[in-house]
Structures are given as C-alpha cells and as structure tokens.
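Q: Got a minute? One more chain.
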Amino acid sequence: MQLILRSDTKDEVVVVQCRGRIVTGEEALHLQREIERLTDLTKNVVLDLGEVTYIDSGGIGAVVRMLGAMRAARGDLKLCNLPPFVTKVLQATNLLTVFHPYESERAAIAAFAGTPEAAQEKFDMSNSRVICIDSSPDVLAYLKLLLREAGYQVFTTHVPSDAVALWMGAKGSVVICGPAMRRNEAGLQKLRQSAARMIQLADDFSTSEADQAGPELLNQVRALLAEKR
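A: Always. Here it is, folded:
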C-alpha cells in the first residue's frame, strides 16, 4: 500500500493528512475505511492533499463518493493544500467548484465555522440523458459527477437489465459501460440490442490519468450526440 494517512482532531474537525498515491484498489479502500471510521466521531473532515503524489480516475471517484456520503449525513468533506497536478485534474473534469478547495488547513477548518455548504444538486435542463453502468461504486460516482457538471442528466446502475429499462423509460441519449462490463458479455449484448449509442470504457479507465480520461470521455459523448442531431 502506497498511501499513508495521519488523522488529527482540531476544533471539532478531523484533518486527514494523505501522503502517497490515491489510486484504485487498496489505497482508495484504505482512505474510504478511514473516513468511515472518522464519521463515528465527526461529520466534518478535511483532506490535506499536500503530500499526495498521484491520483487516478478511480481515486477521484472514491473522493467524490465520500463527499456525497458526508453531505448526505449533514456534514462535509473539504480539501486543502492541493498540489498543482490535483488542481489540474479537478479543473479538467469540471470538479473544482464542487470541492471548493482551500489553500491551507487553517482556512479549511475555519470554513466549518461559517454557513454549512449544502449539497447542491443542479436542476438539469438538458435533454441529453446519459446512463452509466458498472459494478464499481467509485467509477459510477466519478462518472455521475463528471457528466452532471458538464450539463447532462445522469442515471447510474450496476445491473444490465436496469440499464436497458432506463434507456427505454428515460429515453436515454448515450449509455456508458464501465470497465467491469467487459466481463459481462451477456449484459453487453442486451445493451447493444437496445441502446443505439454506447461507449465502452477501456479496461484501464479507473487507473488512467484523471485529467485526460475525463475530458476524453466528454468529447466522446459530445461526438455521439452530434451524430444524433
């Protein structure tokens, strides 16, 4: 495992200092378990990413999912001390305004004393509905936020038959099949028979450079929708 975590409580806020890599697999699970353990103590958590050396798409997805869980529990997860490459990843994936990162640990802690940030769900006026299917909750969390911030209505599931039903019932525009779906040929065949526009993510999507994988996927979606017109 290449992720070292150190937690400290300051002013009723838990600060988790991360050192190393936040990537798909044991590292992301290690961070998730630590956050889940801390939620028994507080709903206010700061992730200090100052010593993070790398984060992939799956790692971003894990952090996105933790953010959603904390806000659903009436708490929040704030980021601070972002290295330039993490800032670049969040900018490239339109997630910078979702996380509202802070320049210092002190500023992030102080922010909890102000008005709590509500989980803001955008009222989506888009007619383009994207259906995402994969067995990984982190991949689905990442795809949902990435696409929603780009202006699409997003539906997620891990069951092929549900994806088919969503395509028909929600009048889907594009189906995105995550890497895990490559191991479910029967499920893929059902989707191919129903969905006119489908994107199959590469096996290495979760472990790829997040600042490249996200924008490339958005370009694919836009290209398919342009063909539709």
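A: The longest helix spans residues 210-228.
Q: Perfect, thanks.
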